[in-house]
Amino acid sequence: MIIQPKVIIHGGAGSSLHGKGSLDLVRQSLVQILHQIYAQLQVGVSAQEAVVLGCQLLEDDPRFNAGTGSVLQSDGQIRMSAAFMDGAMQRFSGVINVTRIQHPINLAHYLQNSPDRILSDYGASELSRDLQLPVFNPLTEQRLTEWLQDRKDNFARSMANVVAESMEQGRGTIGVVALDTQGKIAAGTSTGGKGFERIGRVSDSATPAGNYANGNAGVSCTGIGEDIIDECLAAKIVIRVTDGLSLVGAMEKSMAEAHQRGRDLGAIALDATGTIVWGKTSEMLLAAYHTGSTIGDTLDNREQSVGKVTG
Ligand code: GLY
C-alpha cells in the first residue's frame, strides 16, 4: 500500500531572532528545502534518501549551524557531528567531531552498513580519506567574525548563535525526520556543536539522545546537547510511543519533564500514522513541515511548547 509521505525539518532552537527580516529569511530557507525533500518523497524516494538529501541541503545553508556555517570551537577549529537512524532496521550510525568535509551526514549514512557504526575524529577523517571525499572548508566569514568577537570578550557567552546573524545566543543544529510512501521512517541530525566548547566535547547529535527512530516514530533534537543527553530525549519519545503513548502525549510528557528540570532544547518528530509533532522548552524552534496537503512552520508559535499536525 502506498501512503502519503510526511516530513518535518529543523534548523535549531534558541532565543528569538532579532527582526522580522531574519525570520522571513529562515522561513524561506526552511520552506524551500522542504519543497525539495517532499518532491523526492512524492516520487517514491525512500525516507533514508530523503533524510540524507534534506540534511545535505541544510548543511549547505550557511545560515544554519551544521556543515557550511558551523560554529568554531574554543581553539578556532570546526568539528562537526552527525547521526543517521533507519527506523525500519532500528539502526543508528554517526560521526563525532569530524573535520574538513562538506556533508557529515554522508559519513553517518555510509556507516549504516559498516560493522563499526559510530566513528570519532581520527577514525571519521580516515573514513573520509578512504572514501576520497574532497577536502572542504566549512568556515564562513560570519562565523569567524562571531568567534573573533567572542575571543575579544574572553568567550563570556556559553553558546554560539543558533543561526548566522546578529541575535541573542542560541542553540543550532539541523535535523530531518521523514515517513516515505512505504510507511518507513528515518531521522538525521547534524551540528557544528555549541560553539566555543572544549576540544573533544561530544554533542548529543551523534547519540540516540539527539537522534532516534524505529518502526513507530522518529525524532531529531536541537538545543543544548548536555540537556538533551540528560533527558535522553529522542530515544525517550520514541520508546514512549512504542509502549503505547500517542506521539503528542509522548512529546508533552517529555517536554513537561524537561521544562521542570530547566532544560533548553527542542525536538521534531513524526510517527508511522503520519502525525507530525514538535516540542520545545527554548523560546523558539526553527522547524517546518509538509504533510502532503499543508506546509507550515513553528516560527510564530513562541508560546506553544508542543504542536501537532495531522492530515
Ligand atoms: N545540540 C547540539 C550540541 O549541543 O552540540
Descriptive keywords:
alpha+beta; 311 residues; Glutamine Phosphoribosylpyrophosphate, subunit 1, domain 1; binds glycine; single chain; five-stranded antiparallel beta sheet; globular; 14 strands; nine-stranded mixed beta sheet
Shape: globular
How many beta-strand segments? Answer: 14
Mean pLDDT: 93
- What is the total domain count? 1
- Low-confidence stretches are 166-170
Ligands and ions found:
glycine
The separation of the N and C termini measures 17 Å
CATH level 3 topology: Glutamine Phosphoribosylpyrophosphate, subunit 1, domain 1
Order of helices and strands: EHHEEHEHHEEEEEHHHEEEEE
Number of H/I helices: 8
Approximate helicity band: 25-40%
For the report, how would you describe the main beta sheet? Answer: 9 strands, mixed
Percent strand = 25-35%
Q: What's the arrangement of secondary structure elements?
A:
Elements: E1 6-14, H1 20-42, H2 47-60, E2 80-86, E3 91-98, H3 104-110, E4 118-120, H4 121-130, H5 141-152, E5 170-171, E6 174-179, E7 185-191, E8 211-213, E9 217-223, H6 225-231, H7 233-242, H8 247-260, E10 265-271, E11 276-280, E12 284-290, E13 295-297, E14 306-309
Parallel strand pairs: 3-4
Antiparallel strand pairs: 1-5, 1-6, 1-12, 2-3, 2-7, 6-7, 8-9, 9-10, 10-11, 11-14, 12-13
The chain binds glycine (GLY).
Glycine binds at residues 171, 173, 191, 193-194, 203-205, 222-225.
